[in-house]
């Protein structure tokens, strides 16, 4: 099983669906190898399904790539082969986090009276202790706290629990938006976290594949494309297994498209003079971090309005969704002229100076009637606002914004915890 470039060491773990190998010379990393086998009801029904590992691989690697590129911390490092990937070595937290948008399955049994299809908003979170012998019992927050887990040296307390809870919600929302681009409803999802043995960070680990979620194309349960199809089989016939396999292929095929932007837009920064180029470069850098292309142009609405309008027409003419950012010091004529002559959004981002800034800013704030341009002083924040506009239609941009919000929340939580520990 080992491949030329990787020196596979000893097997660290083996479960029903995968094996975990040490990688010699690369401490802190492991190889996660899928097995050609599909399980349900804890392996009561077990069938080898040719090609399943390969499809699992593709699903997991696309999903983890999507999350990773969005800024979610995961154990995934890179794809290694058709059936294996390299991941950070984690000590796994033995909890399954379940997140639901639509009530179905075991939720209905545990909550009699709730009809299938009930929509949770906000999302419904549940956790289950991973304990095969007791059929993975549902746990409360208190049970997790009292279990006093400690993994890779990290005690799992309230802070860690809240981080996992919040992360699960963000991960669900990112995958939900991604699947929506394929006209598919993400009904529910289960994930696991581990503690990276090297960094002691809590990261999304294990895998996300067909077994991890319910997907209903067009929100229609009868077209479900997930493992439920397999669980529902009355009898495992070769024909029935073909249907399951086709469904797996459907998902593995679609999952690649989750990484494609539906619509790509661009930001065009117009500056009144090259003296503002450093300010504009900051806008560009931030745009690129959201995966949005950004062009810088020089034009003055006061000194060359014909040229300003010509440049405007250039970008209006090719059908690419565009946000204009106007960078003009002193009197900002640029933003208002653009805003009064284009249906595209315009953001004023004037580079204010300490001496006149308080006066100059009014040229960006006080508009003639009929103009809807916004004004954002920080160049990074102007780019963020442009990203929020594109995020309405581009799920990849939206996911970066969503993950960044999560990461900020986690940093604050951790900073608070650290300060509390110091003052004890
Ligand atoms: N990055 C990782 N580092 C270390 N262990 C991992 C990593 N990813 C997954 N594992 C662990 O590898 C083991 C084998 O996975 P598998 O999913 O086959 O187990 P399983 O039979 O489903 O049992 P479990 O109920 O623990 O999931 C699991 O215990 C899983 O938590
Ligand atoms: C496994 O995943 C990688 C990365 O997505 C992909 O290049 C490779 O083709 C996949 N293998 C199979 C058999 O799908
Ligand atoms: C997750 O957090 C929410 C909001 O704080 C809380 O209501 C919920 O009980 C938590 N869920 C779990 C399973 O811990
Ligand atoms: C992906 O979804 C299909 C559809 O049911 C499923 O058959 C397949 O097993 C899933 N992939 C994996 C690896 O579980
Ligand atoms: Mg498992």
TrEMBL record:
Record's GO cellular component terms: cytosol
Key words of the record: ATP-binding, Decarboxylase, Ligase, Lyase, Multifunctional enzyme, Nucleotide-binding, Purine biosynthesis
PROSITE patterns: SAICAR_SYNTHETASE_1 (PS01057), SAICAR_SYNTHETASE_2 (PS01058)
Gene3D superfamilies listed in its UniProt record: 3.40.50.1970, ATP-grasp fold, B domain, Phosphorylase Kinase, domain 1
Pathway in which the depicted protein is active: Purine metabolism; IMP biosynthesis via de novo pathway; 5-amino-1-(5-phospho-D-ribosyl)imidazole-4-carboxylate from 5-amino-1-(5-phospho-D-ribosyl)imidazole (carboxylase route): step 1/1; Purine metabolism; IMP biosynthesis via de novo pathway; 5-amino-1-(5-phospho-D-ribosyl)imidazole-4-carboxamide from 5-amino-1-(5-phospho-D-ribosyl)imidazole-4-carboxylate: step 1/2
Superkingdom field: Eukaryota
GO molecular function list: ATP binding; carboxy-lyase activity; phosphoribosylaminoimidazolesuccinocarboxamide synthase activity
A biological process from GO: 'de novo' IMP biosynthetic process
Pfam families found in the cross-reference section: AIRC, SAICAR_synt
CDD domains named among the record's database cross-references: SAICAR_synt_Ade5
InterPro entries: PurE_classII, PurE_dom, SAICAR_synt/ADE2_N, SAICAR_synthetase, SAICAR_synthetase_CS
Location of the PurE domain: 265-412
HAMAP family in the cross-refs: PurE_classII, SAICAR_synth
Assembly and binders: Homooctamer.
Protein name as it appears in the record: PurE domain-containing protein
């Amino acid at each position: 099983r080992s491949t030329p470039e990787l020196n596979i060491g000893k097997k660290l773990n083996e479960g029903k669906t995968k094996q975990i190998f040490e990688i010699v010379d690369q401490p802190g990393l492991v190889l996660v190898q899928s097995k050609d086998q599909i399980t349900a009801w804890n392996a009561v029904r077990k069938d080898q399904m040719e090609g399943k590992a390969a499809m699992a691989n593709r699903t997991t690697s696309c999903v983890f790539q999507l999350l990773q590129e969005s800024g979610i911390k995961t154990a995934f490092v890179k794809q290694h082969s058709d059936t294996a990937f390299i991941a950070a070595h984690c000590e796994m937290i033995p909890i399954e986090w379940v997140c639901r948008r639509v009530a179905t399955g075991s939720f209905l049994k545990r909550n009699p009276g709730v009809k299938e299809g009930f929509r949770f908003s906000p999302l419904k979170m549940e956790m289950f202790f991973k304990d095969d012998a007791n059929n993975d019992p549902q746990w409360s927050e208190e049970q997790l706290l009292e279990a006093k887990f400690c993994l890779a040296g990290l005690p799992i307390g309230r802070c860690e629990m809240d981080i996992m809870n919040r992360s699960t919600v963000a991960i669900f929302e990112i995958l939900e938006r991604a699947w929506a681009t394929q006209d598919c409803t993400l009904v529910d999802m289960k994930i696991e976290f581990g503690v990276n043995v090297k960094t002691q960070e809590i990261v999304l680990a294990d895998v996300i594949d067909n077994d991890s979620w319910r997907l209903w194309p067009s929100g229609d349960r009868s077209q479900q494309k997930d493992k439920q199809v397999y669980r529902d089989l009355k009898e495992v016939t070769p024909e029935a297994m073909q249907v399951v396999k086709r469904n797996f292929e459907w998902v593995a095929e679609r999952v690649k498209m989750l990484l494609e932007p539906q619509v790509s837009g661009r930001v065009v920064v117009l500056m009144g003079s090259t003296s503002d180029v450093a300010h504009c470069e900051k806008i560009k850098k931030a745009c690129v971090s959201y995966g949005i292309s950004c062009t810088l142009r020089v034009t003055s609405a006061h000194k060359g309005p014909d040229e300003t309008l010509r440049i405007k027409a250039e970008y209006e003419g090719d059908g690419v969704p565009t946000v204009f950012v106007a960078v003009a010091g002193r009197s900002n004529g640029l933003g208002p002229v653009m805003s009064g002559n284009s249906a595209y959004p315009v953001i004023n981002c004037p580079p204010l100076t300490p001496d006149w800034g308080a006066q100059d800013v009014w040229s960006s704030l006080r508009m003639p009637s009929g103009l809807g341009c916004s004004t954002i002083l920080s160049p990074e924040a102007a780019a963020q606002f442009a990203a929020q506009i594109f995020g309405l239609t581009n799920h990849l941009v939206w996911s970066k914004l969503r993950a960044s919000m999560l990461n900020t929340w986690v940093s604050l939580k951790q900073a608070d915890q650290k300060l509390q520990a110091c003052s004890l």
